[in-house]
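It is worth pausing here to work through a concrete case rather than discussing structure prediction in the abstract. The textbook approach is simple: state the sequence, then state the predicted structure, then interpret. We follow exactly that order.
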Amino acid sequence: MGDGAVKKSKRDETEEERRARKDRERAERKLREQSEAEKLAQVADGDKRERKHKRDETEEERHARKERERAERKERERERERRAGAAEGGNRERMHKRDETEEERHARKERERAERKERERAKERQEQQENSDNEDVIRKSFVHDDAVVDDEIPTWHLESNEAKTSGVIPGWKKDELSAAMEVENRAIRHAVDEAREAARREERRRAEEERESEAIERREKRRKEREEKKLRRSQMSDISGTVVGKSTIGVSELQRQGYRAQFEKDLQRATALRRLVDMDDVSAALVDVPPQSQYDMYIRNFGDMGRKQTGVQAPAEEDRIDFEVQAERVRVRHRAVEVPRDLGLCPENSADRPMQLVRDLGQDNVGEALENNEVMGEPSLSNVSSSRVIDSNLLASFLGRVFPVMRAILDENDEERAGPEALESKSETQFSTSYTTFSCVATCNRPVLKVLFNPCAPAYLAVLHGAVGGEGPSMELDRYLSVIVIWNVYDSFSPEKILVSPSLLTSICMSPRWPYLVYAGAEDGSLYVWDTREPERNHFTAGCFQRNAFRLPSFATSWQTGNHMAPIVAIAVAGYNTVVGVRKDENEQLVSLDATGETYFWVVNEKDQSKGAISDTENGLNMFSTVRLFLATSKCESRVNALSMNQESFALDFVPTDPSHYVVACSEGVRHISRFGSIAAPSLYGPCSLFFARPVAVPSCVRYGTVDSRIFVVGYDDGTLRLYLHTDAAPQLSIPLSNHSVKEMRFSGCDKWLLWLLDASGTLFLLDLAKKEKEFPVLSQTLLNPETGSCTCFDIPPEGKADNRAIVLGFEKGLIQLHTLSDFTHPPSSDREEHWL
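Step two, the predicted structure:
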């Protein structure tokens, strides 16, 4: 109120009052300046007098002054020590705050908040009381000061006149006036500061209350959003009614639900088709045969009585000169084909007659035997001492069956002599206890591009080697651009089979129905098939290395029209991961995806050997081979891009609950596609944002879960991993895992939340998505060694087919390592939450 009164008096004063106020303020300012100058002069005089006094003081005075200064210095040191002790106490208090538990910290925070609010309320009451007292004091002081100032103006003028006349200004009056004005100003400033501080405290208290209310509203809003999201998710799961329900359902229950859903779908389709078809009953007699008599039935079954000869009556031994066997004539059909001699496919002359009979004859009867054509074969009969029967076909088949067994027995003997430590090396990795190295000398100059277990027979591995990096030990093998080596996990000394290709292969897969079929896609857009059942003698012209013949493709699509026009990036068998299981009575379909997003479906067919006719569809079929591929249909990936360019694609995978649906990882995101044109919802899984017309998050690989088919994971070029639900376009989980592109992902066959992952730098990760801290991997190890190079690929055994405690790794320098996993890769279930999704 004092400030308001002053402002109002200034606003309402007259010209004379304003001039008088200005003169008074000017005089006060000059007086303050003079007083300050006098104080400075006094301080300077005091310093001079003190220095002069120090020079003139006696020995006793100097000693007393030294003692006084020493006492003052000790007092200052004790003050500093007290401050340091207070600071140390604060540090101890902060250390105690760091070591306290969550409950203690919460209790301390509540106690401090209550004490702070109590202090603020007490301070506010005190400030209100002080403000009211200060307002009364200021109001009275202003009124009194105006009167004093008005009374002092003539006195001041009189004193100034007297000073002028006398030439001396009294100092005590100046000191009194300056002291009074200083007290006034200090009181005014103190009151104004107290009012401003009170206003600031009130504003801070209101802001804190507003922030607390906003935080409470945000928490309530987030809680409501989470409840609504859970409700929508439960409603969607109830509406969808897919084969796989909650994640707690076992594999057998999932299969039963899959069978039930497929049966209901087929029944609905059959019912709908039945309404469209109107059939008429037509009867016709195709054959009119009279009934057979009892005698006719006896004659018909006479030859099928199952009788056989159990003995024979032979003549005496001296009369037994020769004998013959009476039997029916064997019907033989010969087929021949004209083959160039340099291919090495022409059989030997002795092989034209598989049965070679040499009788025990003397030297004198040789000519007679030759005339009667009784002796067959070129060896001299003079060296033959006893009769022998040689069947070349039986001998070849016998050796083909016995040789692998004998080689395995010899290898086992070598293992027993060398000991188990000679084969398995102690692992230096975090995730395995030991490992076995597989290395083929002929492929040591080729990097490993892909390695996988056989889905039907997990004891066999298929390893894809890339282009030649340097001159190798086999000049014949270096002529081929790509090599596939088949290994037996129990035989690390030599490979089972070596498959060669004239084109550069980019991806391979194996049949989930027939373990002897291997498929591969090439960089020129062609597909190749190998049938490992074929005998090695059909492929001797391709080359051989250490008793292993190089096997050419059984069938190639490069001779056919309608191939891919871009490099193939992924191939897979349709429905290989279906939850209802693979049916062997159905025809297998192979799916190929090229870099432009085009997807082709191929039907795998086996030629009937009994038919000797050659058709136009057999272009690309190798001699003596029977497996072929037919182009069933093609579905072009929709190219939706702002620049009207081809949609670049990288990987594909099939939906386990419906093999007619599949997902493709392309540059704009993960596309959900239906093969037969039905609705695929959602059609695009995010994120799909653009930066300067270029996609930000580009997926590099995609994989569905092996146990829980509702989920699938996508790896991106920026090293990010995202987990999706099949029915939701937004990711449920996003983990920034690495700074390099994700290359391979595999779900563990024993735990649906364990995920193996490999990036482009050769670092292997193991993620446990059921942990509370899902962003941190269970293990992370960079597989880089000067002897092996960096790790380029890996695979784990299929679920339920073999021991899941194994993992196979492929390296840059052509080596393969089969690791036995340790117990570290099976985390305990105490710190896991498996039903979070």
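Step three, interpretation. The two ends are 66 Å apart (CA to CA). Residues 171-240 form the longest helix (70 residues).
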